[in-house]
Specification:
Strand order of the largest sheet of chain B: 1-2-3-4-7-8-9-11
Largest sheet of chain B: 8 strands, parallel, barrel
Number of strands of chain B: 11
Oligomer: heterodimer
Distance between the termini of chain A: 35 Å
Number of helices of chain B: 15
CATH class of chain A: Alpha Beta
Strand order of the largest sheet of chain A: 1-2-4-3-5-6-7-8
Distance between the termini of chain B: 21 Å
Order of helices and strands of chain B: EHHEHEHEHHEEEHEHEHHHHEHEHH
Number of domains of chain B: 1
Structural class of chain B: alpha/beta
CATH architecture of chain B: Alpha-Beta Barrel
Helix content of chain B: 40-55%
CATH superfamily of chain B: Luciferase-like domain
Shape of chain B: globular
CATH topology of chain A: Rossmann fold
Radius of gyration of chain A: 17 Å
Strand content of chain A: 15-25%
Shape of chain A: globular
Strand content of chain B: 5-15%
Structural class of chain A: alpha/beta
CATH architecture of chain A: 3-Layer(aba) Sandwich
Largest interface: A-B, 16 and 20 residues
CATH topology of chain B: TIM Barrel
Number of helices of chain A: 9
Helix content of chain A: 25-40%
Number of domains of chain A: 1
Chain lengths: ~260, ~375
C-alpha cells in the first residue's frame, strides 16, 4: 500500500494529523469510526486528479482530543474552521460512515466552500425497523470483521489490531466514537429536518452488504437530500473505499465529471 | 464491627443454562425468562429476610441498583427501601447505591433519599455509585460522560441537601432554575454518604478526601487490604487519620455446623452467583469511556471476566467466608485485622440460595458471629505485622 506520511497542523489550538497528496481540486475526506490513520490505494487513485486531504478527526489516532469535543456537530464546525484556515474553495467533500455524518452536518451549516458532497455508508439519520449491529457489544475482532463483505479484507486490519503499539490508538478511537455516537446511537434526531439545505450536488455510495449502515439507509438519505445520486456497489460491505477501491473511485469520478459537465 | 445484611435480590429461579448460552445474565438475557408470579414471590421472600435481619440484630440492611439483569431485581431500590422504612424498626437502611450518571434528573435522588431519611428518622445511609459498565448499555447513557455526570450529580445533591433553596444550578449535564427540594434530610447536615467501588484509585482518593465511607466490592482480601491502605494514605495526605469506621468490606458469609457441610451446601449457589449471575463479556463490563484507557488495558490484561471460579478459589482468596462458626469467626477477625475495616456488608443470600438455607445462615451469623464482633475493632498490631 502506498503510504503518505502525516503532517500535524493546528486549527484554533487543536493539533490534528493530516495526510495530503495529489494535484487538482481539493478533496477533503473524512474517515469513519473504523478506518482512520490509513492512506488507501483508492486515495492514491483519486489523488491523480485531486489534492486529496485526509485528516484524522480530533479525538482519533495522532490528533489531539480537545476538551470541547462532545458531538458530531462539534466536528462539523471544526472542519468549517479547517476549510477557512486552509482557504480551500470548490472542495469535493467525501465522508465515510461517521465521517459522512460529519460531512452532512457541515453541509447543512454552510456549503460556500464546497463543490460537491459524497456520503459513503453514512450514519447520522435513523430509519425505523432496520436491524443494525451493536458495535459496542462486539469484540475488537468482530468489529473489524463486521466492516467487510469478503472476510479476506479484514485480515490486514486484524494484523494491525494485534500489534501492541496499536492498542492505545484503538482504545482512543473507540472511546471517542462512544463519546460521539453512543446516544442516540449513531444519529442526530434533528439532522434529517435540515438536509434540504444542502445545495451542492450529492452522491451516495453504498456497499450492497453494509451491515453497519444497511443499504436501506441509502434510500432514506436519497429521499431527504435533494437530487442525490446513488451508486450501490455489489460484493461490498461498509467500507467501499477499502473493499472495492476501483468501483468506489469510478463512482466518484463519474459523479464529479457529471457535475462538472452540468456546471 | 458493624455487620449489615446486604441483599442483591437475584432472580434465583433463572435458567442458569440459558444464562450460559447467552453469555451473560445482563442486558441481553431476555426477560421472557422472568415469571411474574415467581418474581413477586421473591420480592416478598427477600423483604421478609431483610426484616428478619433487623430482628436478629444485624446492624443494617443494604439494597443496591442494577438494571436489566437477573443478577438483581432492584432497578429502583427506593421502592424496596420505602417498603422497609417502616418495617425495619432498628437497623440502618442503606442503598449502596443509586447509580447517579444514569439519571437525567439527579435532583430526584436528593428527594428520594431525603424522604427515606425522614421515614426512618435518620437511619438512612446514602450510597452513590457510577453503576457498572453494563448499565450504560442497558440505560442508553453515554459511558464517556460517566465520571463527569457522577461528579456533577453528587455536587448537586449535596448542595441541595445543605444549601437553603431555592438556588440555581448550571452544570454541563444538569441545569435547574430552582433547586429547593422538600423534604430536607432528617440527619444534619445530611445522611452519611457511602461510596462502593470495585477499587478505582481515583474513587478511593476522592472518597478519602471527602471523608466518605468507602465500600470495597467483591475482591480477594489481600486486594481489599491494599485498597483500604490506599484510603488511609490518601486520608493522611488530606490531613487526617481515617477511622476503621470509614471502611466497609462487601463479602459473602455462609455458616453451617462444620466446614465440610458449609462448603457442600454453599457451593452450587455461590458458584451460580460468580459464574452465571456475575458473568459478562469484557465489552459489556467496560464500555469505551467508562474508565480511562490505562485502567481498561489493565483490566483487559487480567481477563477479569473469563475464568470460572470455584468456591474453593473464593474461600482461599478470601473473597468469601464459608465454614463452621469458629472458622468464620477466625477468618473474619483475621481479615478485619489485615484490612482494617469496621463494617462488614455481608450477603447472607447469594445466587440461587433458597429461603430456608438463607434464614438458617442468617440465624447462625446472628447467634455465632455477630455477638463476638459487636465490640471488636481492628487490631492494629496485626495489621502492622502483615504489612
Amino acid at each position: 500500500m502506498d503510504d503518505v506520511s502525516s503532517q500535524q497542523i493546528a486549527v484554533r489550538g487543536c493539533n490534528i494529523a493530516v495526510r495530503r497528496s495529489g494535484n487538482g481540486r481539493p478533496m477533503l475526506m473524512l474517515h469513519g469510526a473504523g478506518d482512520s490513520g490509513l492512506w488507501l490505494p483508492s486515495m492514491t487513485e483519486l489523488a491523480a486528479r485531486h489534492d486529496v486531504i485526509v485528516p484524522e478527526h480530533p479525538g482519533y489516532g495522532f490528533s489531539d482530543t480537545p476538551a470541547w469535543l462532545d458531538t458530531i456537530a462539534d466536528l462539523a464546525n471544526f472542519y468549517l474552521d479547517l476549510l477557512d484556515q486552509l482557504d480551500l474553495t470548490g472542495v469535493d467533500l467525501v465522508g465515510h460512515g461517521l465521517g459522512g455524518w460529519i460531512a452532512a452536518e457541515l453541509a447543512v451549516r454552510n456549503t460556500h466552500r464546497l463543490a460537491s458532497l459524497t456520503l459513503v455508508g453514512a450514519s447520522g439519520i435513523h430509519v425505523k425497523g432496520i436491524a443494525q449491529l451493536d458495535s459496542f457489544l462486539r469484540t475488537d475482532e468482530q468489529r473489524i470483521r463486521d466492516l467487510f463483505h469478503d472476510p479476506a479484507h479484514a485480515e490486514p486490519l486484524l494484523a494491525r489490531l494485534r500489534r501492541p503499539e496499536c492498542e492505545d490508538v484503538g482504545l482512543k478511537n473507540l472511546t471517542t466514537t462512544a463519546r460521539l455516537v453512543w446516544q442516540p446511537r449513531g444519529y442526530d434526531p434533528h439532522l434529517h429536518k435540515w438536509l434540504h439545505r444542502i445545495d451542492v450536488p450529492v452522491l451516495l455510495v453504498w456497499g450492497a452488504h453494509d451491515r453497519l449502515v444497511p443499504a436501506d439507509y441509502a434510500a432514506a438519505w436519497q429521499k431527504l437530500v435533494p437530487d442525490a445520486k446513488l451508486v450501490v456497489i455489489p460484493d461490498c460491505g461498509h467500507l467501499p473505499h477499502v473493499e472495492q477501491p476501483q468501483a468506489y473511485a469510478a463512482a466518484i469520478r463519474g459523479f464529479l465529471q457529471g457535475t462538472r459537465a452540468a456546471a | 464491627m458493624k455487620i449489615f445484611n446486604f441483599h442483591l435480590m437475584p432472580y434465583r429461579h433463572a435458567d442458569l443454562d440459558a444464562i450460559e448460552r447467552n453469555g451473560s445474565a445482563w442486558v441481553t438475557y431476555s426477560n421472557r425468562d422472568y415469571e411474574p408470579a415467581k418474581g413477586a414471590g421473591l420480592y416478598h421472600e427477600y423483604l421478609d429476610q431483610m426484616e428478619h435481619a433487623d430482628r436478629l440484630g444485624f446492624d443494617g440492611v443494604c439494597l443496591n441498583e442494577h438494571h436489566q439483569t437477573a443478577y438483581g431485581m432492584m432497578p429502583i431500590p427506593g421502592v424496596l427501601a420505602g417498603a422497609l422504612a417502616r418495617s425495619v424498626k432498628r437497623a440502618k437502611l442503606a442503598i449502596l447505591g443509586r447509580a447517579l450518571p444514569l439519571l437525567n434528573n439527579p435532583l430526584m435522588v436528593a428527594e428520594e433519599y431525603a424522604m427515606l431519611d425522614n421515614l426512618t428518622h435518620g437511619r438512612f445511609i446514602a450510597g452513590f455509585v457510577r453503576g457498572i459498565g453494563a448499565e450504560y448499555h442497558a440505560m442508553g447513557i453515554n459511558p464517556a460522560h460517566s465520571q463527569d455526570r457522577f461528579a456533577e450529580a453528587h455536587d448537586l445533591i449535596v448542595r441541595a441537601w445543605t444549601e437553603p433553596g431555592p438556588f440555581q444550578y448550571v452544570g454541563k449535564h444538569y441545569h435547574f432554575n430552582y433547586v429547593n427540594p422538600w423534604p430536607r434530610p432528617y440527619q444534619s447536615p445530611h445522611p452519611p454518604i457511602w461510596i462502593p467501588s470495585q477499587g478505582s484509585a481515583s474513587t478511593i482518593r476522592w472518597a478519602a478526601q471527602m471523608r466518605y465511607t468507602y465500600c470495597q466490592t467483591l475482591s480477594p482480601i489481600a486486594v481489599v487490604a491494599r485498597f483500604f491502605q490506599l484510603y488511609r494514605d490518601e486520608a493522611e495526605k488530606a490531613g487526617y487519620q481515617a477511622s476503621p469506621d470509614q471502611l466497609a468490606w462487601s463479602n459473602t458469609v455462609y455458616v453451617a455446623d462444620t466446614d465440610e457441610k458449609a462448603m457442600r451446601e454453599a457451593r452450587p449457589h455461590l458458584e451460580a452467583l460468580t459464574n452465571r449471575f456475575l458473568k459478562m463479556p469484557t465489552e459489556m463490563l467496560l464500555p469505551p469511556g467508562y474508565s480511562n484507557i490505562d485502567s481498561i488495558k489493565r483490566i483487559r490484561a487480567v481477563k477479569i471476566t473469563g475464568k470460572p471460579q470455584t468456591i474453593d478459589d473464593l474461600v482461599k482468596n478470601g473473597v468469601v467466608i464459608v465454614g463452621s462458626p469458629s472458622t468464620v469467626r477466625e477468618k473474619l477477625a483475621e481479615y478485619q485485622d489485615l484490612a482494617g475495616f469496621n463494617t462488614s456488608l455481608t450477603k447472607t443470600q447469594f445466587g440461587t440460595l433458597p429461603d430456608d438455607m438463607t434464614r438458617a445462615n442468617m440465624v447462625a451469623i446472628a447467634e455465632e458471629v455477630i455477638p463476638h464482633f459487636r465490640d471488636r475493632v481492628p487490631q492494629k498490631s496485626q495489621r502492622a505485622a502483615a504489612e
